[in-house]
Design brief:
With 586 residues, this protein is an alpha/beta fold. It has three domains: 203 residues, Thiamin diphosphate (ThDP)-binding fold, Pyr/PP domains (Rossmann fold, 3-Layer(aba) Sandwich); 150 residues, TPP-binding domain (Rossmann fold, 3-Layer(aba) Sandwich); 192 residues, Rossmann fold, CATH 3.40.50. It contains 24 helices and 18 strands. The longest helix has 24 residues. The chain is globular. 51% of the residues are buried.
Length: 586
């Protein structure tokens, strides 16, 4: 009795479909079992191979940019690549924004793009562009697969699949481009050839379920400098642990262990997954607000900073660390890419956080500087009281209050996605740390607003959980077609509609009133009522804090669109007032 893999491959109707079935079978064995597909003709062999595979999952959406960002969201959640399948021509170019984000933020993706054969390239053939190395330096690796031919050993397909997946998941993770040329016929019509002899060398592989080639991911060693630093800190130093973007539960646990062992305050970025929920270390949730108070920032300069993971959202935190120049400025991440825009990093340790935690906690902890830690803790508590009083007394919705309310509405462990621009900043500044914990995601590699809805949909497919999304109006308009993805991926969209680009009111250009409103404020005068109807999404437009809480209770867990209207100038004023209240309290 043949195995499912044997039946799947041996029943390929022609040489082209034999190649794509081998490719998909190999990818599934390497853990790539989810594919985001945009319809197209030249990609027919890839699409059919996925559709007919017994274990592969397919998500189909008409927009290539949307499917690319959905694959990005899947990779963020799982740390494994999803396949992105698209036809030739400009369809491939539509993947560029997601590829840039994935490359910049070390997110694995597998780009499977269909292409014309060599004889049709540079001939004026329809829907043909130069796709070779189209993604340039943003691809961790790329290969131009030749058209299927009997002259090439079928094992080539299997080893290429293995290498592609390995390049996507080894450090630094990122996008890999497999550009596959196909000749007609593209559809699964029989060619009358018997592939039995060609497949004979692969019989043992087909009969099992293991990859053809395995690539253990190399583990980065912990530098000896870690032990030396622990020795240097034995007399006690004013230290901070900054938790930037952390991708796994193991990383989050390691960050807590290191902060608790060192006895240093843990500045938890919103993308660390430690900003809300229970944390077993001295967490500072409102660091961005504390550092807005110059007097506090100037009095509390650290001597050592241990930055764990990816980049933090807070610009103030970055400026504070650049201005005070601690003696030890250590970045720890399993990637060689530089994380030092101000050129102040003294050590870059390319290692895994759990491995470093084992080394650091095996040494005696330095003495806890109580006055240093207490000052941070008391200031954080003061900021918490100011924001709690504001939230409890508010009878109108504001953008800080929306972020705080959305954070509180999560179920424990529920994924939350924040769009770039104001939503992720407001979540970082205002979320109550006692709100339910769980991962918070944002596309902060290149920090674009594009593809945010699709990213959230990809996360929902990856986790099997309902996702909460906090997004601004321009970001939602930018990705409006991705609302179609929500038919099969539960995402509750909370859109803050302030009729334009609210973040520009925080920038110097706001003072130039002759150009500001039409070119930067960009008012559009639209509501999302009709968009919700077009994509058959339940819709709510709460006008009070209580109504927003009720809308979230009703709709969280299902695909829906909740629209909150705010004013851009009012929003700038609320931020300034809250910062002043906290500074006064300190």
């Amino acid at each position: 009795m043949p195995t499912p893999a044997e039946s799947y491959v041996h029943n390929a109707p022609n040489r082209t479909h034999l190649w794509t079935r081998l490719l998909v079978e190999a990818l599934v064995r390497h853990g790539v079992d989810t594919f985001f597909i945009a319809p197209g003709s030249r990609s027919t062999p890839l699409t059919v191979a996925v559709a007919q595979h017994p274990q592969a999952r397919a998500v189909v959406h008409v927009d290539e940019r949307g499917t690319a960002f959905a694959a990005l969201g899947y990779g963020r959640a799982t740390q494994r690549p999803a396949g992105w399948i698209t036809t030739s021509g400009t369809a491939v170019a539509n993947g560029m924004p997601a590829v840039v984000e994935a490359a910049t933020d070390d997110v694995p993706m597998l780009l499977l793009t269909a292409d014309r054969p060599p004889e049709l390239r540079d001939t004026g053939a329809n829907q043909t562009i130069d796709q070779v190395k189209l993604f340039g330096s943003y691809a961790r690796w790329q290969v131009d697969l030749p058209p299927p031919t009997p002259a090439i050993d079928l094992a080539y397909v299997l080893t290429t699949a293995a290498h592609a997946v390995h390049q996507a998941v080894r450090g630094p993770m990122g996008p890999v481009h497999v550009n596959a040329m196909f000749r007609k016929p593209l559809d699964p019509v029989p060619d009358g050839r018997d592939a039995t002899n060609d497949l004979a060398p692969l019989a043992q592989w087909l009969a099992g379920d293991a990859p053809y080639t395995t690539y253990p991911v190399p583990a980065a060693s912990v530098p000896e400098a870690a032990a030396r630093c622990m020795a240097d800190w034995q007399d006690g130093v004013r230290g901070l642990v900054v938790a930037g973007r952390l991708d796994t539960a193991d990383d989050r646990a390691a960050a807590q262990r290191m902060a608790a062992h060192l006895g240093w305050p843990l500045v938890a970025d919103v993308t660390s997954g430690l900003r809300t929920g229970a944390v077993e270390a001295l967490r500072i949730a409102y660091a961005d607000q504390l550092l807005a108070a110059d007097a506090f920032a100037n009095r509390h300069a650290p001597e050592a900073v241990l930055h764990l993971g990816g980049r933090a959202v807070s610009k103030r935190l970055r400026q504070y660390l650049a201005a005070h120049g601690p003696r030890w400025r250590i970045v720890v991440r399993p990637s060689p890419s530089r994380l030092d825009p101000d050129h102040r990093v003294t050590h870059h340790w390319e290692t895994a956080l759990p491995a470093l935690a084992e080394v650091l906690t095996s040494h005696d902890a330095p003495p806890r500087l109580s006055a240093w830690c207490d000052a941070w803790q008391q200031a954080d508590a003061q900021a918490a009281r100011v924001l709690m009083a504001y939230a409890d007394g508010a009878d109108a919705l504001s953008e800080p209050l929306v972020a705080r309310t959305v954070a509180a509405a999560r179920t424990p462990g529920q994924p939350l996605v924040c769009a770039s621009s104001m939503p992720v900043r407001d979540m970082n500044r205002y979320a109550n740390p006692s709100a339910p914990g769980g991962p918070i995601y944002a596309n902060r590699g290149a920090s674009g607003i594009d593809g945010t809805v699709a990213t959230a949909a990809g996360l929902a497919h990856a986790t099997g959980q309902a996702v909460l999304l906090l997004i601004g109006d321009l970001a939602l308009w930018h990705d409006i077609s991705s609302l179609a993805l929500l038919q099969h991926a539960p995402v509750t969209v909370v859109v803050v509609n302030n009729d334009g680009g609210g973040i520009f009111h925080f920038l110097p250009i706001a003072e130039h009133t002759d150009v500001f409103e039409p070119y930067f404020g960009t008012p559009h005068g639209r509501s999302f009522t009709h968009a919700a109807a077009t994509y058959q999404l339940p819709y709510a437009a709460p006008a009070t804090p209580q109504a927003l809480r009720e809308a979230l209770r009703t709709h969280n867990g299902t695909s829906a669109l909740i629209e909150v209207r705010t004013g851009r100038e009012q929003n700038r004023s609320v931020h300034a007032q809250l910062e002043q209240r906290i500074a006064d309290a300190l």
